[in-house]
């Protein structure tokens, strides 16, 4: 009996960790791995939960809970983002860390997977308060992190300033500047050119390749983007620049659409001015479901986990779904989409641009030599398209969905590394 089915029978709605373990179980079965190998790969290597007291600007004291999970270290130091969200749970962080392991292996980046999270709504706190939370969290997890141990990066609710505070806190403890302890930092503090838009560029590289594979040309095609944050916003702009008509977008507050194609530059300015896509005069108001279920060539879910599920999967009409977010499609929805002939490009491939350029940033910091923007962009494109070719060829050869093919390739690489290293003692 799989872990997913056990949870479902107990009457509990499966979450991201159930989805991640279900994907791993399928890959392990295809690869012929026994329960011992599965259990090693399904279980985090190390995890830490910390309390984070905050003295607010008005003098009140609040307490937050933070996590850092290192899923697997067989292929190198751990790598993974840090998110600030009121919905953070330990199981969510465990799932995201596992997906990071597969992502790094699939893209041949010499890292293992990690993830961090603090259960806080960053919109409700001042910049000074968020800095204090970040520095305390960093201090608490500092024994786990470091350029040769675990390298955090931005995620939902965090940004380059968060990474600068983390780097500084860690460096103060060490007594010297350690640029390589985080990635996604400001360029003036050792960040890499191209890092801020890397995930989005990677999504678009793969999306265009996926559309070409089913006979859809970019010019004149249509797309919907669910999520207009770090990933979705830039992805919408890059798709627009390639000639794709982005006809619907959404954020956590609302959604807007225009069948003729949204003016993305004007929408970005509106979001900068108001903080949301809501009340954008260049489109009509839509529901969040309308965006996901738009009649488009391409759908990019670029927000959070589980937005495409068994309940709405039959209404997804996009020919190609490219996962800009981590875990936006549940296993049950995958089955529905595959049966309907939708091409789903999985998260561990589609949104790997961020970890690729994070790796580039780490390499540059360790060498104290920074690359030009065009060098970063060309190397990112090469990595993404090479991985696309490998996954699509593997899927075709074994008649597997892209997600299964990608997970099998990644799991096999991690398992081989673990086997070569052996068990200690």
Give a structural overview.
- This protein is of the alpha/beta class and 425 residues long.
- It has helices at residues 3-9, 16-31, 35-42, 90-106, 127-141, 160-174, 198-213, 232-241, 264-274, 288-292, 331-339, 347-350, 353-367, 373-398, 402-421; strands at 46-55, 61-72, 78-85, 112-119, 150-154, 222-226, 245-250, 255-257, 284-286, 298-301, 320-322, 343-345.
- A hairpin with a 4-residue loop joins strand 7 (245-250) and strand 8 (255-257).
- Helix 7 (198-213) packs across helix 8 (232-241), helix 7 (198-213) packs across helix 14 and helix 13 (353-367) packs across helix 14 (373-398).
**Rg for CA atoms:** 21 Å
Main sheet makeup:
7 strands, mixed
Percent of residues in beta strands?
A: 15-25%
Distance separating the two termini:
31 Å
Low-confidence stretches: 1-11
Give helix % range.
Answer: 40-55%
- Average pLDDT confidence is 93
- By DSSP, the count of extended strands is 12
Query: How many helical stretches?
Result: 15
Helix/sheet category: alpha/beta
- Strand order across the biggest sheet? 9-8-7-6-10-11-12
Element order: H for helix, E for strand: HHHEEEHEHEHHEHEEHEHEEHEHHHH
Global morphology: globular
What's a concise summary of this model?
With 425 residues, this protein is of the alpha/beta class. 46% of the residues lie in helices and 16% in strands.
Highlighted features:
16% strand; 425 residues; 15 helices; 46% helix; alpha/beta; 5-stranded mixed β-sheet
């Amino acid at each position: 009996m799989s872990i997913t089915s056990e949870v479902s029978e107990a009457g509990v709605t499966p979450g991201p960790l159930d989805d991640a373990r279900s994907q791993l179980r399928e890959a392990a079965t295809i690869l012929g791995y026994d329960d011992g190998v599965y259990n090693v790969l399904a279980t985090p290597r190390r995890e830490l939960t910390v309390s984070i007291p905050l003295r607010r600007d008005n003098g009140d004291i609040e307490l937050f809970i933070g996590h850092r999970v290192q899923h697997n270290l067989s292929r190198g130091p751990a790598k993974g983002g840090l998110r600030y969200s009121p919905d953070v749970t330990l199981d969510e962080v465990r799932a995201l860390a596992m997906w990071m392991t597969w992502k790094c292996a699939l893209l041949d980046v010499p890292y293992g997977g990690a993830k961090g999270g603090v259960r806080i709504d960053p919109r409700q706190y001042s910049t000074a308060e968020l800095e204090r939370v970040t520095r305390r969290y960093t201090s608490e997890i500092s024994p786990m992190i470091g350029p040769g141990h675990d390298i955090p990066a931005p995620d939902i609710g965090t940004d380059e300033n968060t990474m600068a505070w983390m780097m500084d806190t860690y460096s103060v403890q060490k007594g010297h500047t350690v640029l390589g302890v985080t990635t996604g930092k400001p360029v003036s503090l050792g960040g890499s050119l191209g890092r801020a838009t890397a995930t989005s560029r990677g999504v678009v590289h793969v999306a265009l390749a996926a559309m070409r594979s089913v006979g859809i040309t970019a010019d004149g095609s249509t797309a919907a983007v669910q999520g207009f944050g770090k990933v979705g916003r830039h992805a919408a702009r890059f798709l627009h620049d390639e000639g794709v008509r982005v006809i619907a977008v959404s954020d956590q507050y609302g959604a807007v659409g225009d069948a003729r194609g949204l003016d993305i530059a004007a929408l970005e300015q509106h979001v900068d001015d108001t903080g949301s896509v809501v009340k954008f005069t260049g489109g009509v108001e839509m529901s969040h479901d309308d965006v996901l279920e738009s009649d488009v060539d391409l759908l990019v879910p670029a927000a959070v986990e589980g937005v495409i599920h068994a309940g709405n999967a039959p209404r997804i009409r996009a020919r190609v779904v490219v996962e800009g977010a981590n875990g936006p499609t549940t296993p049950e929805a995958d089955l529905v989409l595959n049966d309907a002939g939708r091409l789903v490009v999985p998260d561990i491939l589609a949104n790997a641009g961020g970890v690729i350029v994070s790796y580039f940033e780490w390499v540059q910091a360790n060498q104290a030599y920074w690359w030009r923007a065009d060098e970063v962009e060309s190397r990112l494109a090469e990595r993404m398209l090479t991985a696309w070719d490998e996954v699509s060829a593997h899927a075709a050869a074994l008649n597997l969905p892209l997600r299964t093919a990608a997970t099998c390739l990644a799991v096999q690489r991690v398992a081989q590394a673990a086997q070569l290293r052996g068990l200690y003692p």
